[in-house]
Amino acid sequence: MTVSGLAVGLALSFLATRFLRTFLFGVAATDALTYASVAVLLGLVALTACYIPARRATKVEPTEALRCE
Description:
By secondary structure, the chain is an all-alpha fold. The chain is 75% helix and 0% strand. The protein has one domain.
């Protein structure tokens, strides 16, 4: 889901460059380094958001989790 979201977001941002040029100062609207760094940062945030709850879930005993349900 993260990869598909990043792909759709990058595609839409390339389409929106016409409108974004007026808001950007000192950076080109199609600056590859900026696109890559934002994509990597969002990917890391998404992986961290998935990793922390998954790690907590692995520490719970399965029988305890089933009893609570």
